[in-house]
Amino acid sequence: MHKKPYLSAAVAALCICPLAADAATDADLLAIRLQIQQLKQNYEERIALLEQRLQAAEARQTQATQTPQASVAPAQPASGEGAFNPAISLILGGTYGALQRDPAVAATGFAMNPNPGHQQGFNLGESELGISANIDPDYRGVATLALAPAGGITVENAYVQTSAAGNGLNLKFGRYFSALGYLNEQHAHAWDFVDQPLVYASFWNNQLGEDGVQLKWLAPTDTFIELGGELGRGRGHPGSDRAKNGAGSGVLFVHAGDDIGVEHSWRIGASLHKTRATNRISNAVPDLPGTPGGVSNSFSGDSQTAGVDFVWKYAPDGNTADRYLKVQGEYFRRRESGLLTYNLLTTDTYTNTQSGWYLQSVYQFMPHWRTGLRYDQLDPGTAGVGALNAGNIISDYGFQPSRATLMLDYSPSEFSRFRLQLARDHSRQGLPDNQLFVQYIMSLGAHGAHQY
Questions:
Q1: Rounded to the nearest 5°, which phi and psi values hold at 10?
Q2: What is the per-residue pLDDT across 87-139, written as a single tens digit (0 to 9) for each?
Q3: In angstroms, rounded to a whole number, what is the distance separating the alpha carbons of residues 88 and 417?
Q4: What CATH fold (topology level) applies to the domain 93-121+153-445?
Q5: Alpha carbons within 13 A on the beta-carbon side of 96
Q6: How far is CA 141 from CA 207, 220, 275, in A?
Q7: For residue 122, with 0-12 CB atoms within 10 Å meaning exposed, 13-18 middle and 19 or more buried, which class applies?
Q8: pTM
Q9: What would the mean pLDDT of 357-373 be, rounded to a whole number?
Q10: CA 125, CA 127: separation in Å to the nearest integer?
Q11: CA 180/CA 272 separation, integer angstroms
């Protein structure tokens, strides 16, 4: 396979940096910086990765060139203007939604899962305030605060990340979006559609956030290979927050990717998530007797989810500013086993395996203009219900929720976007829904490049 000229040069320069005491020269580091500046024109989504590897190379140089005299007379701290000033950004967004059905109704067979839903009419979206800065030569801090339209502030991300761990290692601790799958780490303003696929909405309440620690290892190879794991509190669905010692959830993931010539690139991945729910309450769950408004069930047990993901990108002559095509998809399969308390009264065994997937494509057909098509589908599975609840709980709905979505967006610049989205929603049995959304997303201040 032929590498993209600029990307290959930068990656090769990084990979030849010794992982031990040998230091990269000033000329090597300068060459890497020049390659990064050239890559920013066409490969903005990869800059974060290249800069991370550059920081590691600089750190190795600093460690290798230290002398006994330097330890006696330590170097003065950086004093240049803005050396440690934080980068601050604010994302403003809003939508107009026109729906035929009540958005509070969950997808059929997934009433015991979260239902982020949509909002009708004019709505101020969630504003996002981001703050990031280098703490010292070894650590970097990031905080992302979500400002709710009705008031109140929630913490989406607040973590510390190593910047000079070396040997391809990167440690993150605090609150973060899990690295499972492909979409989960992306903030809402970076989504290609107004909403997340059905499988993300139903399985992860749009995104799995954790309080814990994450370790990634980037292999020193031309091909992008990343291995990682996480230990967390288990606060996000399908787990339940816990006030006890130890970890409540764990994640393992692997990603691999590469370039094919100057026009194609790809990435594939696999992930595994395990957690435990304790008295996880689900409201408005339909039951066989037809209780008005549904019932409230409680589940306690183990939950394990496995997933695979892929993305492929194409840009004629490697020029993403004019035209490019991106195709991506993900599949998740979750098995839960434990005890279910029906209507908070009758407890018996419960097992179920559910799955979901989506496939989408986004095409920039001319500068500033993109269109996209997405199809997503869920499988509620057939539940194994204990004898005490066999007459209460619907074990097989015989229906697979699905949805088809078309979007068109216009970005006058990299800081602003307007989007029109149409969807034909068949996620609720017997309740088809034609949906229309208009969205704006505006970015103020400094904002780092997004991940690949």
A1: -65, -45
A2: 899 999 999 999 999 888 899 999 999 888 888 999 998 899 999 999 988 99
A3: 20
A4: Porin (2.40.160)
A5: 4
A6: 21, 25, 27
A7: exposed
A8: 0.80
A9: 97
A10: 6
A11: 7
